Amino acid sequence: MPEGKSEVMQGTLDLMVLKTLESMGPLHGYGIARRIEQVSEDVLQLNQGTIYASLVRLHQKDGSRPAGGRRRTIGRRNSTASRDRAGSN
Predict the structure, then answer these.
(1) Based on C-alpha coordinates, what's the Rg of the chain?
(2) Angle 41-46-12 (CA atoms, 0-180°, nearest 5)?
(3) In whole angstroms, what is the distance from residue 35 CA to residue 51 CA?
(4) DSSP type of residue 40
């Protein structure tokens, strides 16, 4: 492993992503990565792709859909769904 790089186990990263979302509310992958870096005092350096891979794993583990049939989003709100609901009034 190159000096200066940390490896984080997938489950640990997933937990950090979930805890970040729990404390900060909906965020894009970039915001999640920056917050984890900030909290770790830059010990961890994450790119957006790493965060998105974690979000995909979390979606696959969740695998559930709400009663309306729409997939729940982890991280950020689905603006398309919000527009759909607004237009149906």
Answers:
(1) 15
(2) 85
(3) 11
(4) T
